[in-house]
Amino acid sequence: MKVNVNNVSLKISAGLPSQFVRSPLPQIAFSGRSNVGKSSLINTLLNRKSMARVSSAPGKTITVNFYDVDNKLFLVDLPGYGYAKRTLEDKKKWSLLVDGYFTNNPNIDLLKLVVQLVDSRIGLTKDDRDMVEFLNQAEIPYIVVATKTDKLNKTEREKSVYSLVNDSSLLPGTPIILFSSESKEGKNDVWDTILKYAE
Prior knowledge:
The chain is of the alpha/beta class. It has a single domain (8-198), classed as P-loop containing nucleotide triphosphate hydrolases (Rossmann fold, 3-Layer(aba) Sandwich), CATH 3.40.50. The chain is built from 5 helices and 7 strands; from the N terminus they run E-E-H-E-E-H-E-H-E-H-E-H. A 7-stranded mixed β-sheet has the order 1-3-4-2-5-6-7, sandwiched between helices. The longest helix is centred in the middle third of the chain and has 16 residues, at 88-103. The termini are close together.
């Protein structure tokens, strides 16, 4: 599959599960905690500066955003988790939306891959492990993209990779891609993996 990343549009920002798209295109979902760099990754993949809006306040955005890429696939931006300052009402809305995406999605069979983002400087948090455990149990394919690698020196990078590769939460052999929105490291690897799964 080849896609023209210049032909991209935001199909819908769904605030309710009933608004999820029903188009028969493969879906690639992006999951991660607030402030891990999801919007920056999506913008880098799409060669845009602000297609995916980077929130001024982490955790503020509670919508599932469907980006139509060349009428061939959807990049699905799930709202970030683990933001401590969220109100109880916001946490309920987050849960309703994200749980709804995986359990009340008319096109869940079209979900081909979850791109699980992890901050390379921190490794998997408890919230990340909870998400990965869910994906493991649901048998949903996923890869791990370790973000913000430009902020690590060589020794820190090696330590980060070793930690992820040997983390017992991840299935053995889980692909791990190092990524930086600053240097564009990993951009092509992420695209290659997305298109392979979307075929």
